């Protein structure tokens, strides 16, 4: 039997489908009319999706600060990812999380039920991380807790992983990673609190001996969630664990 939040999520999805059928096709970010219903973004909004600026850290892709360059950090882990667990070998984010189309896509997919937003987000990831995706065996989305899954009716990371899988031909296993417990929302937490919040929160569903696995999420903020998830996959035998996200938030101050 569906719970109240699940029913509301289903009604919201039905309303969005009906709206998409009845109304003219418009850009999801700026609401300009687009040529085809399949065009979730207009041309100018697609052009406004910009990757992190170089020079970038070879491990986490963060734009290196001037002091990091002067200290010879290029080619090494930067100050941002130096505290990450060794299990998380690399991350790639396709765009900078800025006001405008990038933020609008993230919010539309995560909070508003616009699953079609996953298509342009996945396309950006495939363009930017295509070479790395060709070397992996499995895409594993970051799972939501049961409460948030019921409230939203979908997992944005899973939607994104399946969209990437369709483009890259890589198998997706949305059941491989589980949450062992509910965690507090990371949104208002500082970097230390984020790591504490998700420490030990994930568990692999089965063995992954020698498998090359890439985690998928919508936004990288501090890397705490991806790091905790990578540790769970490493404990199950996964090898060369990386992660891709659509957007990268500004470095925490």
Topology (elements, then pairings):
Layout: H1 4-22, H2 43-47, H3 66-70, E1 88-96, H4 101-110, H5 118-133, E2 138-141, H6 146-152, H7 156-168, E3 177-179, H8 191-198, E4 202-204, E5 212-220, H9 224-235, E6 239-248
Parallel strand pairs: 1-6, 2-5, 5-6
Antiparallel strand pairs: 3-4
Helix pairs in contact: 5-7
Account of the protein in words:
There is one protein chain. This protein is α/β, with parallel strands linked by helices. The protein has one domain. The protein has 9 helices and 6 strands. The protein has helices at residues 4-22, 43-47, 66-70, 101-110, 118-133, 146-152, 156-168, 191-198, 224-235; strands at 88-96, 138-141, 177-179, 202-204, 212-220, 239-248. The strands form 2 sheets. It has a 4-stranded parallel beta sheet with strand order 1-6-5-2. Strand 5, helix 9 and strand 6 (239-248) form a beta-alpha-beta unit. Helix 5 crosses helix 7. It is globular and about 50 Å long. The N and C termini lie far apart (45 Å).
List keywords for this structure.
single chain, alpha/beta, four-stranded parallel beta sheet
Helix count, per DSSP? 9
What number is the mean pLDDT?
87
Fraction of residues in β-strands: 15-25%
Biggest sheet layout: 4 strands, parallel
Task: Describe the structure concisely.
Helices cover 38% and strands 15% of the residues.
